[in-house]
C-alpha cells in the first residue's frame, strides 16, 4: 500500500474489458453530466471572482457577496448561466480523461510489466505511484485540448454581467481631458473610479441587465469571426498546466485512498462479495468509501495548481472586460497576467475563489468517481 496504487479495475488486463474505450466514453460522459449540474453555480461564482478588472475596485468582496449580488440583480437562473457548454464539456472531458488514463495505464503496463502479485492470482496487477501519476498527467494533458474551447465560451458567458457594467461605466465617463489638463493624483483617480463603480452597481441593482444576453453559439461565432479557429484555444497554457498537474493529483489521490480502503477491509479478513474467497476489489467498496476518495481527489486537483486556473480565467475574459477599445491592446502572456494579478492583489488574488472551488469540487468529484465506478462494476 505504501508504494503502489491499484489501477482502475482491469483484473485481466485489456482482454478482460472488451469495448473498454467505448465504455470509458459512456461512463465518463454520464458521470460528467451529473457532476456539472451540481457544481455549475459554484463555478460561475468562482469565475466572476477571478475575472474582476484590476484597474478599479473589486465588485465583489468575496464568494458570499458575489452570490448575493448575482441573485439580487439577475435572479436564481443566473447561477446556471452558460451551463450548456460545461455540460457538453464535462461529457467530453471525462470521456477523454478515463479513455486516455486507462489506455496510458495499459501502455505503461506493457512497457514496464509489474511484478506478480503476492496476494493471489485473482488480484489485479499493481502500478507504482509514479506510473499512476504519469498516466493521469497524460490524461489531463489530453483533456486540456478538449476543455479550453469549452471553458473559454463558458467564462465569457459567466462574466457578461461585468462586461455590461464596464460598458455602462465607459458610457457614463466624461470626455477625456485635454493634454494641457493637470493629471489627477493616484488617490483622486482611485476615488473617482470607486465613486463611478458604486454608482454603476447601484444602477444595475435598480434595473436588471438586459434579459437577452448572448448565448454559447453567439459567443462562439464572435470568437471565430475575430480570431479564427485558433482563438478557441485562448488560455490553453493555463488549462494544460492545471489539467496535467491536477489530473495527476486527481487520479493518484483517488487510487491511493481506494487502495487504503481495500487494504483496511483485507486486514479485517473480508473477501470479495462477487467472488467469495477472493481478495476485496474496488467494486466491493461502499458508496461512502468511493465518494470519500473521490471528494478528496477533487480537492487535491483544484488546490495544487489553482493560480494557473485563475490566470487562465483572466486571459479568457479579458476581451469582454476591457471593451471594444481594449481589444486593440496587445494581448498579455500567461506569465505577464500572473505578474499583474500578483502586483494588484498579491498572492490572495491568485487564489481568488479557491475555497469555493474546493467546496464545489468535493461533491462533484465524488459523483464522478462513484458513478463511473458503479457503472464499471455493473457492466464491466
Describe, in short, the structure shown.
By secondary structure, this protein is mainly alpha-helical.
Describe this protein with a few key phrases.
single chain, 380 residues, mainly alpha, Mitochondrial carrier fold, 12 helices
Q: Can you tell me about this structure?
A:
The protein has helices at residues 20-50, 63-74, 84-111, 129-158, 160-172, 186-206, 216-227, 236-267, 287-304, 306-326, 334-350, 354-379; strands at 4-6, 126-128. The longest helix has 32 residues, at 236-267. The chain is elongated, with a radius of gyration of 24 Å. Helix 4 (129-158) crosses helix 8 (236-267), helix 5 (160-172) runs parallel beside helix 10 (306-326) and helix 10 (306-326) crosses helix 11. Strands 1-2 form a two-stranded antiparallel sheet. The chain is built from 12 helices and 2 strands. The chain has one domain: Alpha/alpha barrel (Mitochondrial carrier fold). The chain has 380 residues and is mainly alpha-helical. It starts with a strand and ends with a helix. Helix content is 69%, strand content 2%.
Amino acid at each position: 500500500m505504501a508504494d503502489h496504487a491499484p489501477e482502475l479495475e482491469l483484473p485481466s488486463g485489456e482482454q478482460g474489458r472488451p469495448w473498454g474505450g467505448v465504455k470509458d466514453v459512456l461512463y465518463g460522459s454520464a458521470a460528467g453530466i451529473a457532476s456539472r449540474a451540481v457544481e455549475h453555480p459554484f463555478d460561475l461564482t468562482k469565475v466572476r471572482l477571478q475575472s474582476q478588472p484590476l484597474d478599479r475596485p473589486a465588485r465583489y468582496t468575496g464568494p458570499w457577496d458575489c452570490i448575493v449580488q448575482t441573485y439580487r440583480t439577475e435572479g436564481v437562473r443566473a447561477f446556471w448561466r452558460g451551463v450548456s457548454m460545461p455540460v457538453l464539456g464535462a461529457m467530453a472531458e471525462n470521456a477523454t480523461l478515463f479513455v486516455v488514463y486507462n489506455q496510458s495505464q495499459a501502455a505503461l503496463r506493457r512497457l514496464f510489466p509489474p511484478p506478480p502479485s503476492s496476494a493471489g492470482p485473482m488480484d489485479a496487477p499493481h502500478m507504482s505511484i509514479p506510473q499512476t501519476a504519469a498516466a493521469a498527467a497524460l490524461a489531463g494533458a489530453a483533456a486540456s485540448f478538449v476543455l479550453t474551447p469549452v471553458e473559454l465560451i463558458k467564462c465569457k458567458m459567466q462574466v457578461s454581467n461585468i462586461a455590461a457594467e464596464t460598458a455602462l461605466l465607459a458610457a457614463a465617463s466624461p470626455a477625456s481631458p485635454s493634454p494641457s489638463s493637470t493629471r489627477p493624483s493616484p488617490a483622486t483617480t482611485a476615488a473617482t473610479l470607486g465613486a463611478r463603480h458604486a454608482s454603476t452597481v447601484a444602477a444595475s441593482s435598480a434595473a436588471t441587465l438586459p434579459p437577452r444576453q448572448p448565448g454559447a453559439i453567439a459567443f462562439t461565432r464572435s470568437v471565430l469571426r475575430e480570431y479564427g479557429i485558433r482563438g478557441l484555444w485562448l488560455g490553453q497554457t493555463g488549462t494544460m498546466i492545471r489539467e496535467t498537474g491536477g489530473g495527476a493529483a486527481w487520479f493518484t489521490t483517488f487510487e491511493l485512498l481506494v487502495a487504503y480502503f481495500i487494504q483496511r477491509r483485507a486486514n479485517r479478513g473480508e473477501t470479495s462479495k462477487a467472488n467469495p474467497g477472493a481478495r476485496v476489489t474496488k467494486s466491493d467498496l461502499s458508496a461512502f468509501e468511493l465518494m470519500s476518495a473521490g471528494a478528496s481527489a477533487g480537492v487535491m486537483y483544484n488546490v495544487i495548481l489553482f493560480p494557473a486556473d485563475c490566470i487562465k480565467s483572466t486571459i479568457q475574459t479579458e476581451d469582454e472586460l476591457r471593451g471594444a477599445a481594449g481589444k486593440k491592446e496587445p494581448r498579455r502572456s500567461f506569465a505577464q497576467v500572473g505578474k499583474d494579478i500578483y502586483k494588484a492583489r498579491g498572492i490572495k488574488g491568485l487564489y481568488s475563489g479557491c475555497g469555493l472551488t474546493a467546496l464545489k469540487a468535493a461533491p462533484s468529484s465524488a459523483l464522478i468517481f462513484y458513478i463511473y465506478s458503479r457503472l464499471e462494476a455493473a457492466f464491466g
